[in-house]
Amino acid sequence: MSDVILPPQPSSLPARLARGWARMKRNHIGFVICALGPVLALFVVIRIYPIAETIRLSFYDYHITRRSNPFVGLGNYAYLFEDGPFHEALVNTILFSMLAVVATLLLALACAILLRSIEKAAPIYELLFYIPVVTPWVPASVIWKWIFDPTFGALNYALSFFGVARLGWLQDPTLILFALVAVSVWKMVGYFVVIFGVGLRAIPEELLEAADLDGATAWRKLTRIVLPLMRPIILFSVVTCTIINFNVFAPVYVLTASSQGAPAYDFKVLVGEIYSNGFVYYHMGYAGAQCVVLLLFVMSLLIVQFLAFREKK
């Protein structure tokens, strides 16, 4: 009696492959959920919930020491139009951010281009530039406060050799803006020197060599080759620098030696006003409205920046 060998079923192999693929897909989804679940939960708790709670509080006359916190709707936002200190803080923040962003990025780009010509020593200089970045804001601001001291400060002492009289860098309403911009530039320029340095090293040398053969000047190479190829990095730098400077608080708080209000040391910024209303006077609802306005204002600026740097087809 001979054995009968049956031919393989044509549909069995694809079916097994389909079942295996479905099982692997389920396992992959489960792994992704297990891996990202704690991170997403932490993100919601640390980021999303505080933003949502701030928006909610902005519609209440919420005071931390009161039991009754009535709903006021848009009352806190309406009061922003009448609040003189808020207007002053908004103008100061815009001026400070504009000057700091432009000065920081232009200086960082210039330094990165200069360091490109000394590639062997560039890492050492980048490290030196980066030291202020990792220096905490508070001790750095204290050191700068000593430098700006009108009587014993190193800056006035150096300027005295050129016949310049003593200046109240932190007392004069005009000079304090430039003093704060200088501190911000000193603190952040090293970060963007490294960022721009990475972008410059990614530009193919062949393009620059071809431009040299065509007789292109350094300015033409910069505007026609370097800057267009670095558009994404420049956009990242502009966005990051804008966010950092609009949220400035520590150097202003330390250098002005007050919580946004001492006579002759007053330079108001938005985050300082939020701090004063929320944690000094405990008007959490009004501080929440200021936070929401700051968030919307910065987001609007970022949208404009993204549109401005959008590549034209």
SSE topology:
Layout: H1 12-57, H2 75-80, H3 84-116, H4 122-134, H5 137-147, H6 154-160, H7 175-201, H8 205-213, H9 218-229, H10 231-246, H11 250-255, H12 270-280, H13 284-308
Helix pairs in contact: 1-13, 3-7, 3-10, 4-7, 7-10, 10-13, 12-13
Protein name: Sugar ABC transporter permease
Keywords: Cell membrane, Membrane, Transmembrane, Transmembrane helix, Transport
GO cellular component, one term: plasma membrane
Question: Would you kindly provide a written description of the structure presented here, covering whatever features stand out?
Answer:
The protein is an all-alpha fold. It folds into 2 domains: 57 residues; 234 residues, Orthogonal Bundle (MetI-like fold). The chain has 13 helices and no strands. The protein is flat. The termini are far apart. About 2% of the residues have low confidence. Keywords: Cell membrane, Membrane, Transmembrane, Transmembrane helix, Transport. It comes from Siculibacillus lacustris. This is Sugar ABC transporter permease.
